[in-house]
Amino acid sequence: MKTVLPSLEGGDLLLTAKAFFRASSHSSLAPTVEIGGIWPPLGIWVLDPFEIPFLNTPILLSSGAAVTWAHHAILAGKEKRAVYALVATVSLALLFTGLRARYLS
């Protein structure tokens, strides 16, 4: 009985995600009169994904690569390289956070 419960919980999660996706898709394809018949509704500010979020994606991926580099340098006992990698990671994280704050303000 215990092996069935985790799969049921996963099924509930997928069902909820499917219902949310279906509702948002329906609203965008057939907007109702209550929201003005347009999508997105008036007064909703839409983010342009090809501006700063597009730039933030490679910054975030580079930060992940840099922290992996730092981890491997620490395991290999190369302290100088580990420090360089951690500085790069923190710098990329600050850049990512700054761009994110600027974009959302």
Description:
With 105 residues, this protein is mostly helical. It folds into 2 domains: 41 residues, no CATH class; 59 residues. Helices cover 73% and strands 0% of the residues. The chain is built from 3 helices and no strands. The longest helix has 26 residues. The chain is elongated and about 65 Å long. The chain starts with a helix and ends with a helix.
Q: Please indicate the count of domains.
A: 2
- End-to-end C-alpha gap: 51 Å
The Cα radius of gyration reads: 22 Å
- Largest sheet report: none
| Rounded average pLDDT | 84
Strand elements, count: 0
The gross shape turns out to be elongated
GO cellular component, one term: mitochondrion
Keywords: Membrane, Mitochondrion, Translocase, Transmembrane, Transmembrane helix
Pfam families: COX3
Family: Belongs to the cytochrome c oxidase subunit 3 family.
Main features:
105 residues; mainly alpha; 2 domains; 73% helix; elongated; cytochrome-c oxidase activity; mitochondrion; Cyt_c_oxidase_su3_a-hlx
In short:
This protein has three helices and no strands.
Summarize the SSE layout with pairings:
Layout: H1 4-29, H2 52-76, H3 79-104
Helix pairs in contact: 2-3
GO molecular function, one term: cytochrome-c oxidase activity
Family: Belongs to the cytochrome c oxidase subunit 3 family.
Transmembrane segments: 52-70, 82-103
